[in-house]
Amino acid sequence: MYTIYVQFRCFPEKREAFVEAVKREGILSAVRAEDGCLRYDYYFSEADKNELLLVEAWETKRHQQVHVEQPHMARLREIKDDYIQSTVLGEFELKK
Q1: The overall pTM is greater than 0.70
Q2: Torsion-angle region of residue 88: left (phi > 0), alpha (psi -120 to 50) or beta?
Q3: How much is the average pLDDT of 13-31?
Q4: E strands of the chain, at which residues?
């Protein structure tokens, strides 16, 4: 399994609106239906109202690499401009 996290710094008061836009555009359901997607979940920070965490789990790193090239991910990148100030990405791979 290949897992990454994405820590978003949202513009003030835009965190929930970003997640709603991702759902409304059908991006969340499209990602979850992708081949190899095991998990794609957003988490709200209790301590920081502008912080958002995304955890993605994929069968393999290759599945995740194919994922970022999908048309709905291009749309997500467009949407992010209105809601997200910065992004930090991290990865780890769990061995069976």
Answers
A1: yes
A2: beta
A3: 97
A4: 2-10, 37-44, 51-58, 84-93
